[in-house]
Known about the structure:
Elements: E1 2-11, H1 15-23, E2 34-45, E3 50-60, H2 65-68, E4 84-94, E5 99-106, E6 114-122, H3 125-133, E7 146-155, H4 160-177, H5 187-253
Antiparallel strand pairs: 1-7, 2-3, 3-4, 4-5, 5-6, 6-7
Amino acid sequence: MVKFYESSFNYEYPFPAVTLAYFLRYPNPYAKHVLSTDVIDRHFDANNQRLYTTRLHLKRSKLPPAVLKLLPKGILGSSSDTGQSFILEKSVVDAKEGWMTTETKNLEWTGVLSVIEKQSYRRPFQDMELGRLEGGRSGIGNLGTTEVTTSTTFVSRFGQGSLRAARKKTEIDSSAQGMTADAPDENPPRKGFLSSWSTSSLQRTIEAIGMRRTREALLKSKDGMNVVLERLRSGGLVEVLEGMRRDREAMYASDGPWRRT
């Protein structure tokens, strides 16, 4: 089963400021659950003038309680109790053409729910034309907006492995017993249909819960970006770094996984 969620909005800041804030957005007052960020790979392609970055985020996160209630007890083992999860992020920035694309996906609990978020950041056409007239000047303090489009895909494969195993066993049993004239009236096919229906229903429920949680997370993500952008506007990189220091101190002071890791 697959669900999609899309949204669009604008940041009231120019494209260079938004792209810079994106890479400096953790931590912030709305993302204190992000424990660490590591750059796995970063390179600049001189041929197409684009910056490619791969990062790994460690977040304090658990499956939503509503999802846990739907799962058989013990199916996740101890992984559901660690309180941490890894998020893989890939991004491409084209400063010349004025766009950035990002993709993030969870690396934990993918058998229950896989969430892939893709975002497109783009300088509006009118801002691009104005930048050309001004000789390409588009600093952090200049007026401008950045258009953002988000598309999120939710895929739950929960129960598919068990369902395939059950179907395979039914096929093996049928082959061993031989095909008889009354085979269509046997119970295994009907049981398989009901199992498939219940599995699909559970997958749709998990995806719906994931979608509601993602909507809330997107709002907080936007608020956090606006905090970083305002810091850039008011005090530049110095204020951003100072804000990050204050946010880290707040995270250390609070009772959380910092003390346990």
